[in-house]
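User: Can you recover a sequence for this backbone? Please restate the input before giving your answer.

Assistant: Of course. Working from this structure:
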């Protein structure tokens, strides 16, 4: 399946990402997921193949395009790479870099964006804290101005690619209480006082690393402030809307993969003298799965088209995320059911997809918070 907005350019991009994913990810997917990491060299290989520049401005080292191109690339990598953990780890720049691209100075873009797009450095976005996840406006990591630096103290948690990140786009409190006191600061690996606390063990997304980051009297040059001081909350919210669209797109991709695996299994597995596909109940399960995927895909398409036109659609992005994440949980569950006992076995792909899917109604803003946004924006 493709999106309604796709052109010949998207088709070529799909071809390129498919070839890369089939060669550089799929053969190693199971091993990397079990090992809970993928090799660092993959960043350089992905950049070399032209995958990292997608949707970034040419003047910042990207290859141009918009959110629709990034969505298509992400879908193709999930489906043909067959390792969601690798895709989300490799793609953490997709949430870390956009605020720098949007608000950074030319010098900041040169230092932070370009090396990541060349695959030389790894980037993370650090918003969540042990005591402030959904409630971003009350985050506690403090950055106190001292001469030409900010002195940062605090802890971030659940940070994707946090263990290996060279560049962390970090939300800090530079001002008073609430959303008006938050800024974005880039904190680089090696800055004294910045340590990676621990690599966290999780339900799914195994090949990606998820870390706790600690800052203790960490002096960060004031030149690393992204945008204006105390104006970070708005930038974070814009970033979240894009992230939600991506998570919805990944949900569609995971569901599509689970569906394809289930169709293939149902055509070969036999029970009571015929294939599973020969049983109407199984055919109808598959029909329901395909219908749910198509509905979510249509919403992702609508949302992506509007975002690509430059519209701010936080309500629609939240709806799209909830519809797609409900869908992927239901589809992955039915994929396991169709696989029977095999679906519960570690070496079978749908078992892993079922675990991977569970993150989607939580990460990038929970299902409940999405409903708050939908209610506040009265829909669109
Ligand atoms: C694998 C993984 C990767 C992640 N990657 C990153 C990353 O790279 N960078 C980053 O910054 N963060 C990351 N996160 C964090 C993620 O964004 C948060 O987990 C998420 O925003 C929820 O925050 P929380 O876990 O603190 O839950 P909480 O905010 O404590 O929420 C707990 C429960 O209470 C509900 N709740 C909270 N407030 C309300 C309310 N007002 N009304 C109704 N219900 C409410 C929530 O919906 C949820 O069900 C990641 C998380 C995971 C699991």
């Amino acid at each position: 399946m493709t999106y309604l907005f796709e052109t010949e350019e998207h088709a070529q991009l799909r071809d390129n990402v498919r070839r890369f994913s089939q060669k550089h990810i799929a053969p190693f997917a199971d091993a990397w997921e079990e090992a809970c990491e993928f090799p660092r060299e993959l960043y350089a290989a992905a950049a070399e193949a032209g995958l990292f520049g997608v949707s970034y401005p040419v003047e910042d080292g990207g290859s141009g395009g918009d959110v629709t191109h990034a969505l298509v690339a992400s879908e193709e990598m999930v489906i043909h790479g067959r390792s969601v953990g690798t895709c989300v780890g490799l793609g953490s720049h997709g949430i870390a870099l956009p605020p720098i691209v949007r608000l950074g100075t030319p010098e900041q873009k040169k230092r932070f964006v370009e090396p990541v797009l060349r695959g030389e450095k790894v980037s993370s976005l650090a918003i969540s804290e042990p005591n402030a996840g959904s409630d971003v406006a009350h985050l506690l990591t403090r950055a106190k101005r001292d001469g030409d630096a900010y002195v940062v103290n605090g802890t971030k948690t659940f940070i994707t690619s946090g263990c290996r990140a060279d560049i962390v786009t970090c939300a800090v409190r530079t001002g008073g209480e609430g959303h008006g006191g938050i800024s974005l600061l880039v904190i680089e690996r090696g800055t004294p006082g910045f340590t990676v606390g621990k690599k966290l063990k999780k339900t799914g997304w195994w090949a990606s690393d998820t870390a706790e980051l600690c800052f203790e009297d960490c002096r960060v040059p004031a030149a690393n402030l992204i945008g204006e001081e105390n104006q970070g909350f708005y930038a974070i919210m814009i970033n979240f809307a894009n992230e939600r669209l991506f998570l919805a797109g990944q949900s569609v991709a995971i569901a599509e993969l689970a569906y394809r695996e289930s169709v293939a299994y149902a055509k070969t597995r036999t029970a009571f003298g015929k294939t599973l596909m020969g049983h109407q109940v199984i055919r109808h399960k598959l029909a329901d799965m395909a219908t749910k995927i198509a509905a979510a895909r249509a919403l992702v398409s609508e949302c992506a088209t509007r975002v690509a036109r430059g519209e701010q659609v936080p309500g629609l992005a939240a709806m799209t995320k909830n519809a797609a994440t409900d869908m992927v949980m239901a589809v992955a569950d039915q994929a396991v059911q169709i696989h029977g006992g095999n679906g519960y076995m570690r070496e079978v792909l749908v078992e892993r997809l079922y675990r991977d899917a569970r993150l989607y109604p939580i990460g990038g803003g929970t299902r409940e918070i999405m409903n708050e946004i939908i209610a506040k924006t009265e829909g669109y």
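That completes the design. DSSP finds 13 helices and ten strands in the chain.
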